[in-house]
Prior knowledge:
Blueprint: H1 4-16, H2 20-33, H3 38-50, H4 58-74, H5 83-96, H6 100-111, E1 120-127, H7 132-146, E2 153-161, H8 165-173, E3 177-180, H9 186-197, E4 204-207, E5 212-214, H10 216-228, E6 232-235, E7 238-242, E8 247-251, E9 275-278, H11 279-284, H12 299-311, E10 315-317, E11 322-323, H13 325-328, E12 332-333, E13 335-338, H14 340-343, E14 347-351, E15 369-371, H15 373-377, H16 383-387
Parallel strand pairs: 1-2, 1-4, 2-3, 6-13, 7-14, 10-13
Antiparallel strand pairs: 4-9, 5-14, 6-9, 7-8, 8-15, 11-12
Amino acid sequence: MIDNFRLAHQCDKALRDDQFSLCYDLIARGLRSNPGDALLIVVLAKLILKNPKFSFDFDFLVLCVANFMRIHSAMNKKTAHVWHAISIINSHVMRFSDHQSLKDDKLFFSNFRFPKRRNKKIVILTCVWKRHDLTRLFLNYYQELFSTLDDQVSVQIVAVGSEKSVSRSICEAGGAIYIEHPNDPLSQKWQAGLDYCKALDFDALIVLGSDDFICSATFQHYCSLIDKGVLFAGFQDCYLHDYYHKKTIYWKGYGYSGESQSQPHRLGETIGLGRFLHRALLEYMEFDLWGGVSANKSLDSIMMNKVKSKTGFLPLKDCHLTSSEAAHNGFTFGLISSSLKDLGLFGVDVKVSDNITSFEKYCSSNNVYEDVSNQMLNSSSMRFLEKYGVC
């Protein structure tokens, strides 16, 4: 086994001396010997930043990231400490790689024509099932929130239910467009809603579970994403509120430990709550995020894998998003992953009975969550729960 600590030191020295080929050869040697070495991944990112025009083997860069994730996942080790470096590598691959999927993306979006308007139109897609009080809370909350938004953004909810007149009456009373579809399999229920949305006029679609609550400032954030031509974006963190035990936690995201819901191999992946998809991306995907799949769980992963497979997009921090105004008609490529906390935004998943993913699974390790029950007890962000009698 190569002493990768000494090797990383040698790489750093070569980088400082502008010996880029030597630095790259040393990194490649070390990562082939020990693909889980975090120091070498960081030095590789530093090399990319210092000399982005160096002749990199892009297949090797992709393999380095994949092997690093595989090793850390198998050893139950966290990956979050190298997220910045991984994002730099992913961004560089997407910017300069000649992979066929990315070439197809660039051709499509270079020719795509979409009206850029001052008044943005956003559609929220959600599915409802039982939990009638929570569904009413969800719809009432957003109807009130929409009334506080300025006239530069309008939002419409499309809700897919499975209880016929019962769910229809609740959804339509809450101002939502209602679609009826069987609840099983759940993947096809979501796809049915997406199929309906195809005929609507909108700039971006937001995916929210009927127990997900985001603040009004998040919609201004979405408008800025539309203006920047971002095709896909989401959040890596969120708050979760246990309805029965009155407990609230802040969940940091994938990769903060090697256990359960943290899933280190999914570093940089966004959660389902609040995912943003530009209309142009949905057109490119032919409005297929769950089509041909029969599943009642892992729907976030199914969607993500569909987008990755079709586009070749990789997870990126928002500061590393890739763009080329001339080549891609102003659109930015990548699976943009931001932090709600860093942006000063708020999003909470209210856990009650019949949740697909239980509250306890998010509490697998002290490294991945913080108990913020006391801070949130009197927080204005959570006051809507008291107002509607759920908290």
